[in-house]
């Protein structure tokens, strides 16, 4: 039998109100012991809490009768005055009454165990608690609402349907020829394969919303990367000097653009160097830039000879070039350089990192870029690495099933089963303990 757990659900420290949650079979008895009369389910009752003859606080008490509760079991909330001594006294009383402090994520784990939410929804709860931007909040809320789970459920249904046809053919081998079975099972599998392929092409969008869209400022030393970063961040995050090689490590600055989390990195100026520390900085800069979602090559318009400079090889079509220092650059020369970059499929912006107006316009264009990269008509199929991995696994099995279905029905059936299992792991319909541990250990206590 499960034990009864409790945790402080609000942040520790002084506050107007602190909420202590309780969940488990002893909940009703504990509420009665502390508050006297148990309030009617889901209605707040004002009660004096007492333990061993000592008054603890006057509190709002809520009782939820299982299964109509977050965890699916009997649960309660004590809304007490948010002073550390009050919370301490209540916690001591609960321990005295035989309750145990919850592990991180244990409330949500119980909710999962009792079928109140699936694994993807539980992850949405964790993401919503961590959400700092509008984009993260919307995505997490959609995930809790089942936007991600619904898609996986639909895909699993298609697989189960195909599987039923394949298994029928295996059980009654004399009645159906493999080609006939294939003809019936193949269309559904093909639809699914196309949908998973499309989802995989879009797989990083959800993760970018959750973890941040990564933009690397790259370019030669002294091009004005740090000035641009400080302008965009509206504070002095990076050191600006006219001594080349000043930025040696990567400075990551979190920004919010269009409601999305963005990580902007100022990297070491890319140049050949004999200095071991600077060389390491250059190596890291290149690695960060390669993994980023967008590279902005900051180009010194006053020193046009750098146009074939070190690092421009990192750019691919779709990346940006910010031609900087146009306040002192020669307009004709800059126009010529611009055309060369445009011909390479790069988006070119002319800026003066010193000018707040120019920075403002640059920021606006960057915002619309990030917004269109991260917003989509459909809810993303994956918001974590874990989802993307399982999705890829399912695709491998599905493709194998498709190539076997007209020849070896039994092998195809096994692959369809494996594909369904890979998708099921995302919502946790069938799962192993270690996946559960990984998901729930990232929770805070009290959730
Ligand atoms: P980084 O090495 O690429 O990070 O370059 P910095 O941001 O440190 O800038 C190098 C030098 O160029 C500094 O002296 C800046 O003040 C100067 N600088 C940066 N942007 C502009 C600009 O738009 N116009 C002019 N005239 N100077 C700039």
Give structural notes.
By secondary structure, the protein is an alpha/beta fold. The strands form 2 sheets. It has a 6-stranded mixed β-sheet with strand order 3-4-5-2-1-6. The two termini are 21 Å apart. The chain has helices at residues 27-35, 84-96, 106-113, 119-130, 134-144, 147-171, 178-201, 203-211, 225-233, 276-291, 331-343, 356-374, 385-404, 409-427, 433-441; strands at residues 5-8, 17-23, 45-51, 54-64, 75-81, 100-101, 213-218, 251-257, 260-266, 294-300, 320-324, 347-350. Bound molecules: guanosine-5'-diphosphate.
Structure described in brief:
With 447 residues, this protein is α/β, with parallel strands linked by helices. It is built from 15 helices and twelve strands.
List the topology elements.
Blueprint: E1 5-8, E2 17-23, H1 27-35, E3 45-51, E4 54-64, E5 75-81, H2 84-96, E6 100-101, H3 106-113, H4 119-130, H5 134-144, H6 147-171, H7 178-201, H8 203-211, E7 213-218, H9 225-233, E8 251-257, E9 260-266, H10 276-291, E10 294-300, E11 320-324, H11 331-343, E12 347-350, H12 356-374, H13 385-404, H14 409-427, H15 433-441
The site of guanosine-5'-diphosphate has 22 residues, from helix 9.
């Amino acid at each position: 039998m499960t034990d009864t757990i409790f945790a402080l659900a609000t942040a520790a420290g002084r506050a107007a109100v602190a909420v202590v949650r309780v969940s488990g079979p002893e909940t009703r008895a504990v509420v009665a012991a502390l508050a006297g009369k148990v309030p009617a389910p889901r209605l707040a009752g004002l009660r004096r809490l007492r333990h061993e003859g000592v008054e603890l606080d006057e509190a709002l008490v809520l009782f939820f009768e299982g299964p109509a509760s977050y965890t699916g079991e009997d649960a309660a909330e004590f809304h007490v005055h948010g002073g550390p001594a009050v919370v301490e006294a209540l916690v001591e009383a609960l321990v005295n009454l035989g309750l145990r402090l919850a592990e991180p994520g244990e409330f949500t784990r119980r909710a999962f165990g009792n079928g109140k939410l699936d694994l993807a929804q539980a992850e949405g709860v964790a993401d919503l608690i961590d959400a700092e931007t509008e984009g993260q909040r919307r995505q997490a809320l959609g995930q809790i609402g089942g936007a991600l789970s619904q898609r996986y459920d639909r895909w699993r249904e298609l697989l189960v349907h195909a599987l039923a046809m394949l298994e029928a053919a295996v059980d009654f081998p004399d009645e159906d020829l493999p080609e006939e079975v294939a003809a019936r099972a193949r269309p559904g599998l093909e639809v699914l394969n196309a949908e998973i392929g499309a989802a995989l092409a879009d797989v990083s969008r959800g993760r970018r919303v959750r973890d941040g869209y990564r933009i690397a400022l790259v370019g030669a030393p002294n091009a004005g990367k740090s000035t641009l970063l400080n302008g965009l961040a509206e504070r002095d995050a990076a050191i600006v000097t006219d001594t080349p090689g000043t930025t040696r490590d990567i400075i990551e600055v979190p920004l919010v653009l269009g409601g999305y989390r963005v990580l902007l990195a100022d990297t070491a100026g890319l140049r050949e160097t004999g200095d071991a520390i600077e060389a390491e900085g250059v190596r890291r800069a290149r690695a960060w830039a390669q993994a980023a979602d967008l590279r902005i090559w900051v180009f010194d318009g006053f020193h046009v000879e750098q146009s074939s400079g070190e690092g421009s090889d990192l750019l691919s079509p779709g990346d940006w070039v910010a031609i900087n220092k146009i306040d002192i650059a020669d307009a004709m020369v800059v126009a010529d350089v611009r055309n060369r970059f445009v011909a390479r499929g790069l988006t070119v912006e002319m800026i003066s990192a010193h000018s707040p107006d120019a920075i403002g316009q640059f920021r606006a264009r960057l915002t619309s870029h990030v917004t269109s990269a991260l917003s989509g008509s459909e809810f993303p199929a994956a918001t974590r690495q874990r989802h993307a991995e399982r999705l890829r696994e399912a695709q491998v099995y599905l493709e194998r099933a498709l190539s076997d279905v007209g020849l070896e029905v039994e092998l195809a059936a096994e692959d369809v089963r494996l594909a369904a299992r890979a998708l099921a792991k995302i919502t946790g319909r069938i799962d192993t303990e270690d996946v559960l541990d990984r998901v729930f250990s990232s929770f805070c206590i009290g959730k």
